[in-house]
Amino acid sequence: MKTALLFSGQGERTLHAALRQGLAQGSPLLERALRASDCAADRLLSDGGRALEFSHVLQPVVIALSLMDAIRLENQGLVADFLAGHSLGELAAWAFAGAMTPEDAVEIAAVRGRAMGRAARAHEGGMLALTDIDETGLQHMLAIGRAKGRLDAAAYNAPREVVLTGTLTALQAIAPLCQSRRLNVAGPWHSPLMEEAKPEFAAALKSLSIGQLIRPVVSGLDGACLDDAREMAPRLLAQLTEPLRWTAVLATLASLGVKRFVVAGPSRALRYLIRRNLPWAEVKTI
Question: Mean pLDDT across the chain, nearest whole number?
Fold first, then answer.
Protein backbone atom coordinates (compact mmCIF):
# COMPACT_ATOMS: atom_id res chain seq x y z
CA MET A 1 0.00 0.00 0.00
CA LYS A 2 1.45 3.38 -1.02
CA THR A 3 1.66 5.99 1.72
CA ALA A 4 1.69 9.79 1.67
CA LEU A 5 2.99 11.76 4.63
CA LEU A 6 1.18 15.09 4.96
CA PHE A 7 2.14 18.18 6.94
CA SER A 8 -0.35 20.56 8.57
CA GLY A 9 -0.60 24.29 7.95
CA GLN A 10 -0.89 27.10 10.47
CA GLY A 11 -4.67 27.10 10.80
CA GLU A 12 -4.81 23.90 12.86
CA ARG A 13 -7.03 24.21 15.92
CA THR A 14 -5.32 21.40 17.85
CA LEU A 15 -1.98 23.25 17.91
CA HIS A 16 -2.02 24.05 21.64
CA ALA A 17 -2.32 20.38 22.65
CA ALA A 18 0.53 19.40 20.32
CA LEU A 19 2.66 22.25 21.61
CA ARG A 20 2.15 21.30 25.26
CA GLN A 21 3.29 17.78 24.43
CA GLY A 22 6.28 19.04 22.45
CA LEU A 23 7.41 21.36 25.24
CA ALA A 24 7.09 18.56 27.79
CA GLN A 25 9.19 16.22 25.67
CA GLY A 26 11.86 18.80 24.92
CA SER A 27 13.34 19.11 21.44
CA PRO A 28 16.32 20.96 19.94
CA LEU A 29 14.13 21.70 16.92
CA LEU A 30 11.42 23.33 19.02
CA GLU A 31 14.06 25.23 20.99
CA ARG A 32 15.43 26.52 17.68
CA ALA A 33 11.94 27.68 16.70
CA LEU A 34 11.66 29.66 19.91
CA ARG A 35 15.05 31.31 19.36
CA ALA A 36 14.19 32.12 15.73
CA SER A 37 10.95 33.78 16.82
CA ASP A 38 12.52 35.44 19.88
CA CYS A 39 9.83 33.94 22.10
CA ALA A 40 10.46 32.30 25.48
CA ALA A 41 8.88 28.90 26.10
CA ASP A 42 6.85 30.13 29.06
CA ARG A 43 5.21 32.78 26.86
CA LEU A 44 3.90 30.36 24.26
CA LEU A 45 0.91 29.05 26.18
CA SER A 46 0.48 31.87 28.69
CA ASP A 47 -2.41 34.32 28.38
CA GLY A 48 -4.37 31.90 26.22
CA GLY A 49 -1.47 31.39 23.83
CA ARG A 50 -1.57 34.96 22.52
CA ALA A 51 2.05 34.75 21.35
CA LEU A 52 0.90 32.26 18.71
CA GLU A 53 -1.25 34.95 17.13
CA PHE A 54 1.95 36.38 15.66
CA SER A 55 2.92 34.67 12.43
CA HIS A 56 6.67 34.93 13.11
CA VAL A 57 6.10 32.81 16.25
CA LEU A 58 3.41 30.49 14.96
CA GLN A 59 5.05 29.44 11.71
CA PRO A 60 8.42 28.15 13.00
CA VAL A 61 6.63 26.41 15.89
CA VAL A 62 4.28 24.57 13.49
CA ILE A 63 7.21 23.53 11.30
CA ALA A 64 9.19 22.28 14.30
CA LEU A 65 6.27 20.24 15.69
CA SER A 66 5.51 18.74 12.28
CA LEU A 67 9.10 17.73 11.57
CA MET A 68 9.49 16.33 15.10
CA ASP A 69 6.54 14.03 14.38
CA ALA A 70 7.85 13.07 10.95
CA ILE A 71 11.30 12.20 12.27
CA ARG A 72 9.77 10.12 15.06
CA LEU A 73 7.58 8.27 12.57
CA GLU A 74 10.55 7.56 10.32
CA ASN A 75 12.51 6.22 13.29
CA GLN A 76 9.56 3.93 14.02
CA GLY A 77 9.75 2.50 10.52
CA LEU A 78 7.33 4.60 8.45
CA VAL A 79 8.32 4.74 4.79
CA ALA A 80 6.49 7.50 2.89
CA ASP A 81 6.26 7.21 -0.88
CA PHE A 82 5.16 10.84 -1.33
CA LEU A 83 5.09 14.04 0.71
CA ALA A 84 2.80 17.06 0.68
CA GLY A 85 1.93 19.95 2.96
CA HIS A 86 -1.10 22.17 3.39
CA SER A 87 0.01 25.79 2.81
CA LEU A 88 2.83 26.41 5.33
CA GLY A 89 3.11 22.63 5.69
CA GLU A 90 4.64 22.38 2.23
CA LEU A 91 7.79 23.95 3.66
CA ALA A 92 8.04 21.01 6.07
CA ALA A 93 7.40 18.58 3.21
CA TRP A 94 10.31 19.96 1.19
CA ALA A 95 12.57 19.76 4.24
CA PHE A 96 11.64 16.17 5.02
CA ALA A 97 12.14 15.33 1.35
CA GLY A 98 15.76 16.49 1.63
CA ALA A 99 15.68 19.90 -0.05
CA MET A 100 16.84 21.59 3.17
CA THR A 101 17.62 20.59 6.74
CA PRO A 102 14.92 20.62 9.43
CA GLU A 103 16.89 23.38 11.17
CA ASP A 104 16.90 25.51 8.03
CA ALA A 105 13.16 24.91 7.62
CA VAL A 106 12.50 26.32 11.10
CA GLU A 107 14.66 29.39 10.40
CA ILE A 108 13.03 29.96 7.00
CA ALA A 109 9.57 29.66 8.58
CA ALA A 110 10.44 32.46 11.01
CA VAL A 111 11.53 34.70 8.12
CA ARG A 112 8.36 33.81 6.21
CA GLY A 113 6.17 34.59 9.22
CA ARG A 114 7.93 37.88 9.91
CA ALA A 115 7.61 39.06 6.30
CA MET A 116 3.95 38.02 6.11
CA GLY A 117 3.21 39.72 9.43
CA ARG A 118 4.56 43.03 8.15
CA ALA A 119 2.52 42.75 4.95
CA ALA A 120 -0.60 41.94 6.98
CA ARG A 121 -0.15 45.01 9.16
CA ALA A 122 0.01 47.12 6.01
CA HIS A 123 -3.12 45.52 4.54
CA GLU A 124 -5.76 44.79 7.17
CA GLY A 125 -7.60 41.69 6.07
CA GLY A 126 -8.45 38.08 6.80
CA MET A 127 -9.90 34.87 5.43
CA LEU A 128 -13.38 33.40 5.13
CA ALA A 129 -14.18 29.71 4.63
CA LEU A 130 -17.20 29.04 2.41
CA THR A 131 -19.03 25.71 2.54
CA ASP A 132 -21.55 24.14 0.22
CA ILE A 133 -20.76 26.47 -2.67
CA ASP A 134 -20.42 25.68 -6.37
CA GLU A 135 -18.40 27.53 -8.99
CA THR A 136 -21.30 29.78 -9.98
CA GLY A 137 -21.90 30.74 -6.36
CA LEU A 138 -18.19 31.33 -5.82
CA GLN A 139 -17.93 33.72 -8.75
CA HIS A 140 -21.03 35.54 -7.51
CA MET A 141 -19.50 36.00 -4.03
CA LEU A 142 -16.21 37.19 -5.54
CA ALA A 143 -18.03 39.79 -7.65
CA ILE A 144 -19.94 41.12 -4.64
CA GLY A 145 -16.83 41.25 -2.46
CA ARG A 146 -14.67 42.89 -5.13
CA ALA A 147 -17.15 45.75 -5.32
CA LYS A 148 -16.18 46.56 -1.72
CA GLY A 149 -12.47 45.71 -1.62
CA ARG A 150 -9.82 43.15 -2.53
CA LEU A 151 -11.05 39.55 -2.63
CA ASP A 152 -9.50 36.37 -4.05
CA ALA A 153 -9.66 32.61 -3.69
CA ALA A 154 -7.09 31.45 -1.13
CA ALA A 155 -7.63 27.69 -1.00
CA TYR A 156 -9.62 25.04 -2.83
CA ASN A 157 -9.82 22.61 0.08
CA ALA A 158 -12.52 20.13 -0.90
CA PRO A 159 -15.52 19.81 -3.21
CA ARG A 160 -17.76 22.82 -2.52
CA GLU A 161 -15.33 24.13 0.13
CA VAL A 162 -13.30 27.23 -0.73
CA VAL A 163 -11.46 29.76 1.40
CA LEU A 164 -11.48 33.41 0.34
CA THR A 165 -8.87 36.00 1.30
CA GLY A 166 -8.93 39.76 1.18
CA THR A 167 -9.71 43.03 2.89
CA LEU A 168 -12.15 43.17 5.79
CA THR A 169 -14.63 45.30 3.82
CA ALA A 170 -14.85 42.63 1.10
CA LEU A 171 -15.19 39.76 3.58
CA GLN A 172 -17.87 41.58 5.57
CA ALA A 173 -19.89 42.19 2.39
CA ILE A 174 -20.27 38.50 1.57
CA ALA A 175 -20.24 36.79 4.99
CA PRO A 176 -24.02 37.16 5.58
CA LEU A 177 -24.85 35.96 2.05
CA CYS A 178 -23.50 32.39 2.25
CA GLN A 179 -22.56 29.59 4.61
CA SER A 180 -19.27 30.92 5.89
CA ARG A 181 -16.88 31.05 8.83
CA ARG A 182 -14.19 33.62 9.57
CA LEU A 183 -10.82 31.97 10.07
CA ASN A 184 -8.69 32.88 13.06
CA VAL A 185 -5.70 34.12 11.07
CA ALA A 186 -3.58 37.23 11.34
CA GLY A 187 -3.90 38.42 7.76
CA PRO A 188 -5.08 37.82 4.18
CA TRP A 189 -2.84 34.82 3.41
CA HIS A 190 -2.54 33.47 -0.14
CA SER A 191 -3.46 36.90 -1.47
CA PRO A 192 -1.80 39.40 -3.82
CA LEU A 193 -1.82 41.62 -0.73
CA MET A 194 1.17 39.53 0.42
CA GLU A 195 3.30 40.60 -2.55
CA GLU A 196 5.53 42.82 -0.42
CA ALA A 197 6.47 39.82 1.75
CA LYS A 198 8.18 38.16 -1.21
CA PRO A 199 11.56 39.97 -1.34
CA GLU A 200 12.60 39.06 2.20
CA PHE A 201 11.39 35.48 1.84
CA ALA A 202 13.07 35.16 -1.57
CA ALA A 203 16.40 36.32 -0.12
CA ALA A 204 16.16 33.75 2.66
CA LEU A 205 15.36 30.96 0.21
CA LYS A 206 18.25 32.01 -2.02
CA SER A 207 20.66 31.74 0.93
CA LEU A 208 19.82 28.06 1.50
CA SER A 209 22.08 25.18 0.63
CA ILE A 210 19.74 23.03 -1.47
CA GLY A 211 19.98 19.26 -1.13
CA GLN A 212 18.83 16.32 -3.24
CA LEU A 213 15.30 15.02 -2.84
CA ILE A 214 15.05 11.50 -1.46
CA ARG A 215 11.31 11.31 -2.07
CA PRO A 216 8.91 13.33 -4.27
CA VAL A 217 6.79 16.27 -3.13
CA VAL A 218 3.31 17.04 -4.46
CA SER A 219 2.96 20.82 -4.72
CA GLY A 220 -0.03 22.78 -3.50
CA LEU A 221 0.28 25.25 -6.36
CA ASP A 222 -1.03 22.84 -8.97
CA GLY A 223 -0.85 19.27 -7.68
CA ALA A 224 2.33 18.50 -9.64
CA CYS A 225 4.48 15.62 -8.37
CA LEU A 226 8.07 16.88 -8.21
CA ASP A 227 11.44 15.18 -7.74
CA ASP A 228 13.75 18.18 -8.34
CA ALA A 229 14.69 20.34 -5.33
CA ARG A 230 15.22 23.31 -7.64
CA GLU A 231 11.42 23.55 -7.88
CA MET A 232 11.17 24.35 -4.18
CA ALA A 233 12.09 28.04 -3.95
CA PRO A 234 9.91 29.39 -6.78
CA ARG A 235 6.94 27.36 -5.60
CA LEU A 236 7.22 28.35 -1.95
CA LEU A 237 7.58 31.96 -3.02
CA ALA A 238 4.57 31.86 -5.36
CA GLN A 239 2.52 30.27 -2.59
CA LEU A 240 2.46 33.59 -0.71
CA THR A 241 0.17 35.19 -3.27
CA GLU A 242 -1.38 32.23 -5.11
CA PRO A 243 -4.26 29.98 -4.00
CA LEU A 244 -3.66 26.57 -2.48
CA ARG A 245 -5.12 23.78 -4.61
CA TRP A 246 -5.46 21.06 -2.01
CA THR A 247 -8.08 19.17 -4.01
CA ALA A 248 -5.48 18.84 -6.79
CA VAL A 249 -2.85 17.60 -4.31
CA LEU A 250 -5.09 14.80 -3.05
CA ALA A 251 -6.28 13.93 -6.56
CA THR A 252 -2.66 13.55 -7.68
CA LEU A 253 -1.79 11.35 -4.71
CA ALA A 254 -4.84 9.17 -5.36
CA SER A 255 -3.88 8.83 -9.04
CA LEU A 256 -0.39 7.70 -7.94
CA GLY A 257 -1.93 4.83 -6.01
CA VAL A 258 -1.78 6.29 -2.50
CA LYS A 259 -4.35 4.72 -0.22
CA ARG A 260 -2.88 5.51 3.19
CA PHE A 261 -2.40 9.07 4.45
CA VAL A 262 -0.40 9.83 7.58
CA VAL A 263 -0.50 13.33 9.08
CA ALA A 264 2.52 14.78 10.90
CA GLY A 265 1.90 17.63 13.31
CA PRO A 266 -1.48 18.91 14.54
CA SER A 267 -3.93 16.91 12.49
CA ARG A 268 -7.65 17.61 12.90
CA ALA A 269 -8.06 19.92 9.90
CA LEU A 270 -6.12 17.71 7.49
CA ARG A 271 -7.88 14.59 8.70
CA TYR A 272 -11.20 16.25 7.86
CA LEU A 273 -10.05 17.45 4.44
CA ILE A 274 -8.69 14.05 3.43
CA ARG A 275 -12.00 12.43 4.24
CA ARG A 276 -13.97 15.13 2.44
CA ASN A 277 -11.92 14.58 -0.71
CA LEU A 278 -11.21 10.84 -0.50
CA PRO A 279 -13.81 9.13 1.71
CA TRP A 280 -12.28 5.71 1.04
CA ALA A 281 -8.78 6.68 2.22
CA GLU A 282 -7.06 5.20 5.28
CA VAL A 283 -6.06 8.13 7.50
CA LYS A 284 -3.59 7.84 10.37
CA THR A 285 -2.55 10.62 12.76
CA ILE A 286 0.06 10.85 15.51
Answer: 93
